Amino acid sequence: MAEKDKKTNYDVSSIQALEGIEHVRKRPGMYVGGTDIKALHHLVYEVVDNAIDEALAGFCTAINITIHADSSVSVEDNGRGIPVGPHPAKKDANGKPMETVDVVMTVIGAGGKFGGGGYKVSGGLHGVGISAVNALSEWVTTEIKRDGKFWRQEYKRGVPQGSIKQVGKIKDETGTKQTFKFDKQIFTEDIDFRFDTLIQRFREMAFVTRGVTIRFIDERSDREMTFYFEGGLTSFVRYLNRNRENLHTVVHVDKEIENIGIEAAIQYTDSYTESVYSFANTINTIDGGTHLTGLRSSLTRVVNDYARKNGLLKDADPNFSGDDTREGLTGIVSVKHPNPQFESQTKVKLMNPEVQTYVTQAVGEAFSTFLEENPQAAKAIIAKCLTSARARDAARKARDLVIRKSALESLTLPGKLADCSERDSSKTELYIVEGDSAGGSAKQGRDRHFQAILPLRGKIMNTERARLDKILSSNEIKALISALGTGIGDNFDVEGLRYGRVIIMTDADVDGSHIRTLLLTFFFRYMSKLIEDGHLYIAQPPLFRVAYKTQIKYAYSDKEKDKLVKEMGGGEKAGIQRYKGLGEMNPVQLWETTMNPENRTLLLVTIEDAAESDRTFDMLMGDAVDPRRKFIQTHAKAVRNLDI
């Protein structure tokens, strides 16, 4: 963590205002990305980012986040506290100086980072973010401990409720506490905060901001978790690789070049995939940027240089490609930049060109030194790259046999595919169905105009435990790739997608769940763009058919079944059929319950957190047995639709 800079003043003059707040409630998409559940969580991230800024500045060591029973959220830090007093520049409509806290809370672009005096490095928008949260909340209460005084200010839908008030005195404590309740006039969907989604973000923050304790309490479900990682990125890499076989110890670099902090941690494993993540000022830049490019290019250059120098690559051998040097790599790069430039407001890609040079230099020096000092580890890494290069060449040849040349070439479509007549991919759907029996019902029950059916026989290959060349030898995988028309891996092109919706439809039993997980693993590893662009869904067939007299209804859970029986007045006389497989439904029932767009329920598959998804798939489908057993034992009570 950064040392406290005694020359850095954080008072009312540090807060600068850039523009007004008029558009926030009308156009929330410009500030938090919309009004869906992702935007809802973004409100929390914006407030927590402000506390993280205090930690980066060296003034905060603890952050407490609480979701209360009414879904209001409190974020409290032990930083310096927002400055209190008249603002030196910003005036209200009457020409009087505005209260600095009101400037921070109501003026978009007001914050300690803009003047360069309050913060050396800032991850959150500090002012931009909290004022947007204020505008999109039903109410906000701001509490400040500073200069021996305890202050409180309240807001309703972004409007201050009177002047800030001193409500007490304190001794040595400082900090800020923000409590807000999101506004259901803005967030009109039936959504609420997800504990697991927030946990992923807070864990990342704790890894990247080492030495800070982040405590998260959810009073709705009485769940609690605390994070503190002294090891920083080294701890993060160990966490991601805890179910994998490692080829060497974690290589760590922590350096400052031209006032830009660069930290990276890398470790090769026996995995066949790459797990690389990047952060800029603690923000997860999911689309990468110049820091990620620098990390990757330096690793490829160092590995090739070492292999040539030590005769592990012959003169006739081509250099390893970037793909060859990244197979099995787990790497994280984090930069702290005083003036980060991002591609967009949502900060998913870092654009500063100088960062690539500095990261390449810092990582290259550290990794090169590591290989020179650890020849056994170096040989293991080079051997991994050689095997990867050979397998990639074999996979390239196999791909040529599998991938369709264009979306209109029907000759290469698998014979088992029952295609649809519609050619506009935005209107079409592909149901991936388990088994011939269910496939037959689906083919008869579907709307042939826009719904295609691809039945799969048995369980597909576990793609977590095989290289691409072996995966492409599977007939079921080849049929799936041919039907979709996108190609796979490096050659994946979403433009070739023949169906706007790809829907996994499996039985509600153990085998069905296993097949669904195998398919999700395949899509996550080799067609992740399908998930990112919102094309992948999971069908929700009913579990029960409830019949009483002339009434027939379907239930998707035990709770819903009991409710239906009660509503229908059937009691014990109601006929209840438990569907264990899709094949037990006739075509008409399958259409009515699971395939008719007017009645069905589809679950959209998302990748809310790539690092956690990576770890979960690796744990569920990888070689290590103990972590999987512990996971099953821990989550057994939460499992739905499990047949014994």
Summarize the helices and strands and which ones pair or pack.
Blueprint: H1 29-32, H2 37-56, E1 62-67, E2 73-77, E3 86-91, E4 97-99, H3 100-106, H4 128-135, E5 137-146, E6 149-156, E7 159-160, E8 165-169, E9 175-182, H5 195-208, E10 213-218, E11 223-227, H6 233-240, E12 251-257, E13 260-268, E14 275-280, E15 283-284, H7 290-309, H8 322-326, E16 329-336, H9 353-373, H10 375-402, E17 429-434, H11 436-445, E18 451-456, H12 468-471, H13 475-484, E19 501-505, H14 510-526, H15 528-532, E20 536-539, E21 544-548, E22 551-555, H16 558-568, E23 575-578, H17 587-595, E24 602-604, H18 610-621, H19 625-635
Parallel strand pairs: 1-10, 14-16, 17-18, 17-19, 19-20
Antiparallel strand pairs: 1-2, 2-9, 3-4, 5-6, 5-9, 6-7, 6-8, 10-11, 12-13, 13-16, 14-15, 20-24, 21-22, 21-23
Give a short summary of the structure.
The protein has 644 residues and is α+β, with helices and mostly antiparallel strands. The chain contains 19 helices and 24 strands. The longest helix has 28 residues.
Q: Can you put this structure into words, describing what you see?
A:
The chain has 644 residues and is an alpha+beta fold. It folds into four domains: 12-227, Histidine kinase-like ATPase, C-terminal domain (Heat Shock Protein 90); 233-399, Ribosomal Protein S5, domain 2, CATH 3.30.230; 408-541 and 589-638, Rossmann fold (3-Layer(aba) Sandwich); 544-578. The protein has 19 helices and 24 strands. Strands 1, 2, 5, 6, 7, 8, 9, 10 and 11 form a nine-stranded mixed beta sheet that branches. Strands 12-13-16-14-15 form a five-stranded mixed beta sheet, with helices on both faces. Helix 7 (290-309) packs parallel to helix 9 (353-373). The chain is flat, with a radius of gyration of 28 Å. Mean pLDDT is 84; it is low at 1-7, 124-128, 403-411 and 635-644.
